[in-house]
Amino acid sequence: MSVGDRRARFRELHAGTELFVMPNPWDVGSAKLLAALGFPALATTSAGFAWGLGKHDQQVTRDELVAHVAAVAAATSLPLNVDSERCYPEDPGGVAETVRLLAEAGAAGCSLEDYDPAAGGMDEVGAAAERVAEAAKAAHALDEPMVLTGRAENHIRGVDDLDDTIARLLAYRDAGADCLYAPGLRDLRQIREVVEAVAAPVNVLALTGGPSLSELADAGVRRVSTGGLLASAAYGALVGGARELLAEGTSRYGEAGVPRDVLETAFG
Questions:
Q1: pTM for the whole structure
Q2: Could you tell me how far CA 170 lies from the centroid of its own chain?
Q3: What sections of 115-212 are H helices per DSSP?
Q4: What average pLDDT does this structure show over 12-17?
Q5: Of 12, 28, 157, 216, which residue has the fewest beta carbons closer than 10 angstroms?
Q6: What is the pLDDT of residue 134?
Q7: Using alpha carbons only, what angle is made at residue 194 by residues 193 and 199, rounded to the nearest 5 degrees?
């Protein structure tokens, strides 16, 4: 598929009526493996990619992200959504230039967060909505528009205020966001409330102990992503295996290795 075809396919997935799962690879290898397993779309993970560079989340530069997106987008024929944090509003050209660079790198969509790590708190909703409008204008001006996701970060930043979350999502929808996302929600009643309130495609983060895919589909959720969870599990397996090797001198961890047939399918 061309990049334009992938963007068109990504918009179709959001315009449909069925839930789809969009897992988050953190490098080219994990992207190819996930594509080989049959998912319809992929998304980057800011945390997983940062760990791969030996950094904490939210320490990746825009240049590093754009190069990463270009590599992952070229690795498969699937639409690729980008976890683009705040879209680097302080970098040259700001949010609009970030969207342009991600589009040029092959992205089918990107997201915009409303948590400011420099300030250590949530952005004022009006200012955040203005950035969403700027990003939406850039994303939708492309010959084949990208899908823009507006994110309300309350529930992963210690702000347990569903009313404020919904108000933020509505502001981002009205500013032009195509999909809404409040990572951290795991209560099915609250998820239903968000879906009903925003009347637009909603993404939910798959979490340990959270609702199943069938429950989320029944709640009207359109898209499910995994964030940094798969990367964390992979790195957790590495640490666990290394600790076994150091402490016990054994290599039982190898029993959970990637099946060879999956490697052959993914890597040719």
A1: 0.97
A2: 20
A3: 125-140, 162-174, 188-198
A4: 97
A5: 12
A6: 98
A7: 105
pLDDT tens by residue, 212-243: 999 999 999 999 999 999 999 999 999 999 99
Query: How far is residue 18's CA from residue 206's CA, in Å, rounded to a whole number?
Result: 16
Instruction: Say how far apart CA 214 and CA 78 lie, in whole Å.
Output: 23
| d(C-alpha 44, C-alpha 27), whole Å | 8
Q: How far apart are CA 229 and CA 58, in angstroms?
A: 16
Cα–Cα distance measured from residue 88 to residue 94, given in angstroms and rounded to the nearest whole number = 6
CA distance 10 to 191: 23
Q: What is the pLDDT of residues 159-178, one digit of tens each?
A: 999 999 999 999 999 999 99
Q: What does the pLDDT look like over 100-138, one tens digit per residue?
A: 999 999 999 999 999 999 999 999 999 999 999 999 999
What is the number of helices (H) and of strands (E) in the chain?
11, 10
Strand extents, DSSP E, 6-146: 20-22, 42-43, 80-82, 109-112, 115-116, 121-122
Average pLDDT over residues 30-49: 98
